[in-house]
Amino acid sequence: AKGIRVAIDGPAAAGKSTVAKIVAEKSSFIYIDTGAMYRALTWKVLQNRISPEDSQSIVDLLAKTDIDLEQGKSGQRVRVDGDDVTEAIRTEQVTGSVSHIAKHPNVREQMVQRQRKLANKHDIVMDGRDIGTHVIPNAEVKVFLKASVEERARRRYDENMQKGLTTDFETLKNEIEERDRIDSNRETAPLVKADDAIALDTTDLTIDDVASSILEKVNQAI
Ligand code: C5P
């Protein structure tokens, strides 16, 4: 059978990873979170006190960095050189720096190479910003998820509450808008819908609605 590649792109906190995990699980595909890869690199850049603007040092660092995504029983674990950084890559500090690091063309080039290798091996669901446009332009299924920034901030807020974190709603909203702004305006592989991607506005949809409609496309592609 031919491999099926599902590309899910969209702005920050649009529900991509939640939906991608469900689609992957129901289809027995491998889920690859490319945002986690950029976050893992960002974590290491900050650990090494390298400036987010120093793209050459960042590329050199990335070249000797092992980033491993694995599906454990309790969800996805992210490892950098063997260290579990699953929680560490979700801090405000990493979130606030990741877009500055992800904008460098030479950094993206190396990341995209790694992502293509991962995509070649299996049936996969990959989420990010440039999967349908650059990483896997010939993906069998391409989806672009959107939602109003208010709704995205509300979801992130609720998610944080469930983890026992109280966050300021306006701060969350500003962080999301700022990240979208940098991701959409960078020169290399900006956040944009692929012409042939299906756009889904999830503002008024449930997670299950979104997952079912993507699963329908996957079943048509098999
Ligand atoms: O998906 P997530 O919000 O965790 O991604 C974190 C950041 O990583 C994004 O804001 C973006 O700057 C970068 N990213 C990217 N290309 C991807 C995935 C993520 O530039 N394919």
TrEMBL record:
Cell compartment(s), UniProt: Cytoplasm
EC number: 2.7.4.25
Molecular function per GO: kinase activity
Binding residues annotated for ATP, in chain numbering: G10, P11, A12, A13, A14, G15, K16, S17, T18
UniProt KW ATP-binding keyword: yes
Catalyses which reaction(s): CMP + ATP = CDP + ADP; dCMP + ATP = dCDP + ADP
Annotated Cytidylate kinase domain residues: 6-220
UniProtKB keywords: ATP-binding, Cytoplasm, Kinase, Nucleotide-binding, Transferase
InterPro entries documented for this protein: Cytidylate_kin (IPR003136), Cytidylate_kinase_dom (IPR011994), P-loop_NTPase (IPR027417)
Predominant place of localization: cytoplasm
Family (UniProt): Belongs to the cytidylate kinase family. Type 1 subfamily.
Cited NCBIfam families: cmk
Name used for this protein in its record: Cytidylate kinase
